[in-house]
Amino acid sequence: MRRLILFLCGLLVAAASSAAKAPARAPLKDLYFGEGLYHAYQGEYFDAIARLDTELGQYYGLDEPGLDTLHFHINQAEFSVGDFELNYRMHLRAGRAIKAVLEGNVPPPVRNEAAYRLARLHFQKDQPGDAMTALARIDGKVPDTIRDDLAFLRGNVYVAVGRFGEAASIFKGLQGAKGYEGFASFNLGIAELRGGEEKDGYASLARAGQAGASDPATLAIRDKANLVLGSRLLEAKQPALAKQYLERVRINGPFSASALLAWGWSDAGLQRYDRALVPWSLLVKRNVTDPAVQEALLAVPYAYAQLNVHGKAALGYGRALEAFGQELDKLNASAKSIREGKFLAALVREEIKQDPDWVIKLRALPESPETYYLMELMASHDFQESLKNYLDLEALRKRLDAWEANLDAWEEIIAQRRAYYQPLLPELDRQFRALDSQMRLRIEQRDRLDKRIKAMLVQPRPDFLATAEERVMRGQLDELAKRHRNDPATLERIARLRGVIAFRIHTEYDQRLTDAWKHLAELNGVIAALKKQYASYVRTRQAASQSYEGYDTTLSRLRTRIADAREQSKTLMARQGHLLEVMALNELETRITRLEEYQVKARFALADSYDRAVKAQEAGAVVK
Amino acid sequence: MYRFFVAAVMPMLLWAPSAAGWAEQVSREQIKGLDEQVQEIKSDALGIAADLNRLEEKLLYPSNSQLAVFVSLAPGTKFRLDAVEIRVDGKPVAHHLYTLKELEALQRGGVQRIYTGNVRSGEHTLEVHVLGKSALGGEVRNSASFKVTKDVAPRLVGITLAAPGAAGPSISLKDW
Questions:
Q1: Which ranges constitute the DSSP H helices of A270-380?
Q2: Chain B contact set for A554 (CB, 8 A)
Q3: Hey, where are the domains in chain B?
């Protein structure tokens, strides 16, 4: 009973929160964070976590993470990773991540949201004590977006730990909260019933049974409230009152079969077997795999027998026996198909995974087991979790295969790069070294010029700015002076010419200095371009070596890790698959046992009805 | 007999959880233990995926030549995006047809990395061609061309698509 309530509440938490949450779209500052969200919004949680893990790893490795664009989303990113991990059913990691947020130096609303998430996580894992501890850490301001969700969770946790009174007062406060129409009343009713407040519990369930909403989830909880209330009243031997509520369950809703069956029993409880036949006759026309339909197959002839229509009763039992026989054949064939591994093979078919109604369609596949018998089991939390794990392992297996193929391709790329670059690089390096020494020489010359021109600003040196022609002319004049040292007239002419040159150098000095500055600036431009080209070459050269060097160890380690993970996932998949098969087989076994019991009862009842029909016929003949 | 039948079957119909039948052979501890091991292998695989991401980037898209193009929808965009084509220097490098799930992910604020490749340093032309349907069912065809300059750092380009007739341009580019 406790597990059922927990299971119900778990479903309700999920249903209600999904109805209430609509994430607001905040301005995006980091593209890779947006990419993570893009994967998560499509349910691709593995890719979403991998993306955010990579980004967070890089972010925390930075010297100044505050300058990174992820900084604007860092809290959201941490929470999102936790959320995605939860959705990817990695509760242990998600729990650790949320705990880390809780223990960090964060503002109260952030800490409280983390505590709420941790509590929800523990509750989903059927650990209400731990959920209570997490809830106890909530103190101060709670974000408005989670206020109702938190109250609802707290109420559910109180129910789970047996604090029904406190749970009831929380659920009372949630009456009318948006997104919780019907859910809060239903849980209030359950809390009150379990707390011994039967009258209040009935009233709350009755209120939940009339919740006004048109969405499928609320309509379903309304039906469930009426069914639970009607069934409780039936157990409490109040069939007339029970019928009132059972009649409110929608005829086409998910709980209609159980409601029709119980409705018939409420009439039977009032000894009105003719009226009980109305819902039961509707029910027997439905799919015979439903346990309620199977029971109705026995209930209809039972009602006829009570009405002393033994002939019809005998015929009804005969039909029931025939139906049970056929169903037992189906069940046995299904069990055989599961043992042959066809169930697992069908579960991982791609076309089935694309369709939300895949569980139902599974039965249409050749040689697959009859899934109608497994629907109830398949809807159970444990089976769902195990099945999702199995499917995740299958997806992981495919991923690991693809990664291994990627490694092969990458190794080939690296080998091709090595084959291309290795012979080229030595000659390139030789040429580069020659160019490099020339370049260094020119740069040194430029630096010398720079120093000299700067020095001339302090101490003018016109001679330094003599043109090449002037320097040649001066040299020629020196030569002539040596040759004609004994000819005063010539020496005088030479001195005059020297004077002309010196005059020009001195009078044009300012202009020449300005020109020298201009030329130096031009030279600086050329040198800068040269340096850029140099840096570009160095980068390209480095990139060329890095394109094939230094990968061997990383690739070999990755290959080992992938191989290990593949091996492990293979083993786990086999174990998980076996577990699913055992669950399915045991479910079928339970149904087989139940049907066999029904068969025995039907056989006895058939014989009894024949006897009574024959006796009635004989009595009629005697009277005639 | 029928009274017994009613008394025995009724409670079972109302409350029996389906797990009751296999509880003896498949224990919750078994399920939990296996679940924890599955979580561990998932964790290992995520670690490998992160390392592979980094290695792939280093090996195939080094930062000095990397160009990545991301697509997002402007907030409130309702038009049905069918396809986007990206051309770099006139050559088609990416063409994507959108599923409903992908479109919803974009509408909720997700960002799709549509292309990662390598280009030389310098200026390049990036063309974006969009095909879709307006809210009224009419065909939407839009194109835009942008100049993108690549330097030594990885070049991330964000393309934002808006519905035709929206206040801003229907295709805009943002440098990241």
A1: 273-283, 291-306, 310-339, 342-347, 350-353, 358-361, 375-379
A2: 51, 55
A3: 26-60, 66-175
